[in-house]
## 1
Amino acid sequence: MKIMIINPDYGVSPEAMALRCSILKEYAAPDTELNMVCPQHSRVEINSALDVVLAAPELVSLAAQAQNDGYDAVVLYCFSDPAMEACREALRIPVIGGAQTACLAALNVCRSFGVMLAGSARLPEKKRFLRTLGVDPSCIGEIAAADLNGIDPWANREETLQRLTACGQKMADGGAEAIVLGCLSFLGLAEPLSKTLGIPVIDPAVAAVTTAESIVRQRLNTSKVSYPLLCSLAEEKLTQI
């Protein structure tokens, strides 16, 4: 099985993408091949709804290329699930978003869950976005922010974990039954957080990859009733990839 992971942030180094794949491989089956690509032209890092719109055309192209190259599924490596609906219209193979998958996975281990973001600036956007993922709003509890204040989660791993722990402890003390991490740069930190907080902590990157594996093993494809490709211009451009 081959899964293409699309990191929507422009210009991520090959070494950084390989590191992420190596961490995710610990959770994947031995026969699953993971590869990651990122945009080379958009010059956008996903930090807002506007960034998602600007990055979308190249993300759809990368997803279509993955299908043409024989990949079995595409994973969108971002808690905004950027261009997920568009990719599902363009592709037959499954397209799995980190946010939707993590929230749906959480309900397998709890009745309701909280979400922890990296920064408070995106709280209003995410509160609305989370209600579009197919989860009953009554199952979504507190949406909080660890306020990393510009800290690079990869360059400052220990400090990131400390801030996530402090925020998560407040959420747990307030009654959170489980926590979904609202940023895929927190990859690998869910397990130590869960042990410290004593409640399940869901890593959206891990949830997305393992869900993609499950969907492929069930031999399921994207429903073209739900996601028909109706745009002739898009179809023409996609056939050129």
Note: The two ends are 22 Å apart (CA to CA).
## 2
Amino acid sequence: MDIVKSVKKIEREIIDFRRELHRIPEMGLTLPKTVRFVKEQLDFMGIEYYTLIDGNAVVGIIKGSEEGKTVALRGDMDALEIEEETGLHFASENGCMHACGHDGHTAALLGAAKVLNDNRDAFKGNIKLLFQPGEESPGGAKPMIDEGALENPKVDRIFGMHMGDMDGGIPLGNIGVNYGTMMAAVDSIKIKIKGKGSHAAYPHNSIDPILTAAEIAMSIQGIVSREIDPVEPTVISVTRIDGGTTHNIIPNFAELEGTVRTTNEETRKRVEKRIGEVVQGISLARGAAYEYEYIKRYPSLVNTREVTEEFIQSAEKIIGRDNIQILEKPSMGAEDMSFFLREVPGTFFYLSNLGKIDGVVYPHHNPKFDLDESEIWKGVAIMVQATVDYLNS
């Protein structure tokens, strides 16, 4: 089986998949048009599948030449609430946008499915195709796991890919991979300070929630700078402060929201506890009441070392060792592929293929984000190679 030749043969079809998906972006856990497109392609390929999450996730199954192990390949399908500004002839027109490359992920998984299904005599065992909704929010991996996506047959190994230069320094056309922690855990904080409003000319009659909120925003930064080992990646960012309606009234309450990124589970627990203590302490000192909510979202994404070592050997067959970057540090971005990797040994990797709009490269989650489609075939071929190598080992 010549994997590169097989993938290059359908490269135009994979790009067309991506463009069709790019036209119909949908968000969250409700993706009717996207799922319909995926199911139509699987039907055309003759691949069996079933759905989960009220019909919004698709699990395809390809059986090899004889019984054996099972590999899962994962592709996320959802988009973002961003008005597209690329000017591409296949741009979205519905107010949402595939500004994180998930259209490419889904297209790549469809391409891998076609190659693997057409060459079932070249491998033993089974392949599960995990078309997942809701990666951006609220998370679709865990619901798929809870509904049995990794069972019957039980998955032994899993691979996933993210397009674009997620690391910020991977040369175009190369891949990046980490032997261990690849991406951070992500959590959210919500804080409401309940004070006492008054005319701003008479602040002594108030319990000022704005001042209290500002002190909290400043003080929780000290958790990172003074309580966490400086070589351990940790981020606390307050991203929203809201309170008041006009210039001369101290309001009754103020709200803060933010994000927390950690790469160590003990640090994650410590940060949650310490933010709560800071909120409580400052609120009490100012005479204010408060509400504090710490929302755990996605855990750290951790690759399995042994699997990653074998994955790199497979990737070398497609793009050569010089085009594989070993990432020493985790990204502080997050991915709910982490839930799959908690259940099954596997590897997640980056394919560096940011495209240009008017000669400029724009990052993920930007209205002018685009993919270099000429590099997508590499991600497809690498996933196919890693799958076949493992199943036949």
Note: The first strand starts at residue 48 and ends at 52.
## 3
Amino acid sequence: MEKESRATFSIPNIIMKDKSKTLMKRITSSSVYSRLDTQVGLLILLIVSFSCSTVGIYIYNVCYNHTINTLVEKCEISYQYLLQHLDMNIFDEVITKEDITTDSYEKNYNLLSQVRQLISAKYLYTATYNEDNEFIYQIDAISMNSKDFRYPGDLIELEFQDDVQRAMSGEYVISDDILSTDWGDIFVAFYPVYENKKVVGIIGISFYAHDEKQLYINLQIFTTIFISIVCYLSSILAKHFFKRISNPHFQDIYNTDSLTGLKNRNAYDVDTNNIIHRRMLDEYTLVLADLNGLKVINDKHGHQHGDAYIKFASSALTSDNNKDYVVYRIGGDEFAILFSNQNIERIEMYIKQTKNTLRDISNINLPIASLAMGWAKCEGKDLEAWESAQEKADYAMYTDKKAFYSMNKEMAMRKNRD
């Protein structure tokens, strides 16, 4: 919208705006989880955590189950082999400690010892029950000098009696896990031995599995630490790259005028403030431009034509191929052009060329389209010099606008009437 007089642009207002923005940023940042980069980081954290955990659990279970299945397979093979070669008479003949001297004990002890060594079992033994229906060892295949060696007639430990009972009832009792016992971490299996369709005893097999269990404990610890590190790094990197990728995009949106694609008032405030802080102001020239008769166009032809008018003007203002200037749309019909030089001939040529270009590109649709333009050099480095340049450029532009309306009486009358 056109104005008969213009308020001088004030740098202190810029500073106050910047302070307000800083305060708002602090308030916004206090709600960390409302920030988009934080949400992206958390989302990546959840995805990576779920993915790594799923893969880790899957690998752990596959490896662990493979170990258990290997032990079960060894037990099954040993059991089938012993059923074919074991002397079933031992379940009646080897009952007490004194029976250790019999040929039947020695023969079957040697068989069990060989099998135990072949399958690398910790324990391999046969068991049955005595006259008091107590579960007892018969032939223990470990070395007789071992402190864990059990003589015929020794009672089965209480912790295994339930499993032995189940095996004596005809059930295959096989661990689905590695057990922690007084002897260490072991894997156990108990198989019934039949004679004439009657269970006469059991074959017990135990594997020492401390190394395997420790391996999987270490794997759990490593996996947990690894997942934690990967999740943390993924979250940090996701936030970092999201900022790197998205910030320029969001900054462009924040600093860009949606109608024309030019830099907006916010970008103008930031850029000029930066120039002042760098004390480079005396290297710049400010040009202000204002559309003539925009309100008349809007009222007579509608805002669609008014928007076209603004777009024509932005095209004309950016038609110069030199890269020594930046155009900003700082209001509805107002533009600012910052030149990074103080070449007066260059500035005047730009203004003339811009007005001619606008007339050429809008001649068919908006033959009355024109720009009022004024310029001023920045003659110092401080805020006062900048405000002075604003006033001079604004006055020169307003003078140019008066000249336009003096030559276009009809539009001036409509403007004054409105």
Note: The longest helix spans residues 36-85.
